[in-house]
């Protein structure tokens, strides 16, 4: 399976590689620095210094825990769509809207041609990768989700907006590849909101990843997967990163009916709960996955980003994933 593709890219991973979806909680000093920066009380350099310190903290933590494929923790991001909208041409910041739960964000507005002019994430990726010899994932928000979570005042159709974004996001992927990233994750959490648009998501992803020498992952978030499965297997990526634990592993029933054909980053701990799972619970979940999916295809990670958990909870949940993966290897 794709462990072979990784080997060809020069990355040797153990069975059941462990990773994270992307975000970690921001330490208090970084929360404060972000608030101070928003009020013009500190400079961009001071904010970035706090971001680097927090990134280093999480890289060290992941190494200590023994995670195999690291993430930078997204210390520089607020919202996953607004961050990219701020860094691409063609967007304006919109008013505050409420999204899931009690979270508010500035919904971006597409007012002009969307254009990638400079790398968005590459410097942070390079910094994170410079701190470790383990592979660090490149991480981007996908074109469909950026389109779906923005107002579109420029393009005649959602499809036009999405495909225009796909061509620009590809440039960021190319820049990451050029910088040396071998594992790149394109998040499409909006994937299951409008099942009739799955062909568009597939078309856009193909534009983003086609022909590029990297191992691609896509995180599809919460949602009604039953409405887009097995169609979502068409996505031009090697690995789908899926929330499994919060829904009681329901998806495995779908996988029994129609064979799952990609690698999977199997969400093995619930990120919405403060309760830290015992690693025996995590192992049980993984054993159930192994009844349906070949073991060479299974990666282990939390259901979703850990940014809403405390630093301590995030570490404990990651630790449970690593411990369970190690136990299974033996
Ligand atoms: Zn998610």
The value of Rg in angstroms is 19 Å
Mean pLDDT reading: 95
Strand order of the largest sheet: 5-7-8-9-10-11
Spans where pLDDT lies below 50 across 5 or more residues = none
Total helical elements: 11
Query: What can be said about the biggest beta sheet?
Result: 6 strands, parallel
Short description:
The chain has 330 residues and is α/β, with parallel strands linked by helices. It is built from 11 helices and 11 strands. The radius of gyration is 19 Å and the shape is globular.
Keywords:
11 helices, 14% strand, three-stranded mixed beta sheet, alpha/beta, 40% helix
Can you describe this structure?
The protein is an alpha/beta fold and 330 residues long. The protein contains 11 helices and 11 strands. It has helices spanning 2-8, 28-38, 44-65, 82-87, 122-130, 143-148, 158-179, 198-209, 251-257, 279-290, 311-329; strands at 89-92, 96-98, 104-106, 109-115, 138-141, 151-152, 183-187, 215-220, 239-242, 263-267, 298-301. β9 (239-242), α9 and β10 (263-267) form a beta-alpha-beta unit. α2 (28-38) packs antiparallel against α3, α7 runs parallel beside α8 and α10 packs across α11. The two termini are 21 Å apart. The mean pLDDT is 95. Residues 21, 189, 219, 221, 243, 304-305 line the site of zinc ion.
Topology at a glance:
Elements: H1 2-8, H2 28-38, H3 44-65, H4 82-87, E1 89-92, E2 96-98, E3 104-106, E4 109-115, H5 122-130, E5 138-141, H6 143-148, E6 151-152, H7 158-179, E7 183-187, H8 198-209, E8 215-220, E9 239-242, H9 251-257, E10 263-267, H10 279-290, E11 298-301, H11 311-329
Parallel strand pairs: 4-6, 5-7, 7-8, 8-9, 9-10, 10-11
Antiparallel strand pairs: 1-4, 2-3
Helix pairs in contact: 2-3, 7-8, 10-11
């Amino acid at each position: 399976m794709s462990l072979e593709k990784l080997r060809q890219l020069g990355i040797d991973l153990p069975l059941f590689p462990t990773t994270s979806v992307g975000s970690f909680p921001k330490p208090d000093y970084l929360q404060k620095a972000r608030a101070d920066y928003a009020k013009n009380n500190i400079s961009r350099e001071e904010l970035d210094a706090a971001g680097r310190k927090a990134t280093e903290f999480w890289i060290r933590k992941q190494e200590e825990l023994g995670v195999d494929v690291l993430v930078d923790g997204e210390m520089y991001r607020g919202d996953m769509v607004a961050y990219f909208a701020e860094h691409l041409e063609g967007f304006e910041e919109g008013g505050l809207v409420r999204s899931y739960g009690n979270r508010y964000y500035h919904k971006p507005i597409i007012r002009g041609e969307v254009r990638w002019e400079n790398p968005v994430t590459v410097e942070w990726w390079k910094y994170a990768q410079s701190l470790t010899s383990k592979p660090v994932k490149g991480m981007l928000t996908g074109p469909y989700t950026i389109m779906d979570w923005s107002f579109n005042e420029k393009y005649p159709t959602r499809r036009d907006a999405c495909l225009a974004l796909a061509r620009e996001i590809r440039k960021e992927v190319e820049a990451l590849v050029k910088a040396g990233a071998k594992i790149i994750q394109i998040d499409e959490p909006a994937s299951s909101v409008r099942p009739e648009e799955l062909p568009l998501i597939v078309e856009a992803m193909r534009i983003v990843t086609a022909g590029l020498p990297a191992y691609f992952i896509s995180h599809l978030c919460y949602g009604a997967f039953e409405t887009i499965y097995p169609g979502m297997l068409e996505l031009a990526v090697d690995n789908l990163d899926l929330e499994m634990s919060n829904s009681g592993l329901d998806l495995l029933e779908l996988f029994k009916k129609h064979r799952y054909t990609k690698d999977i980053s199997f969400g093995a701990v619930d990120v919405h709960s403060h309760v830290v799972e015992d690693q025996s619970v995590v192992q049980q979940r993984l054993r159930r996955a192994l009844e349906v999916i070949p073991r060479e295809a299974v990666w282990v990670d939390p259901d979703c980003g850990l940014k809403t958990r405390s630093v301590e909870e995030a570490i404990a949940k990651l630790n449970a994933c690593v411990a369970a993966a190690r136990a299974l290897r033996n």
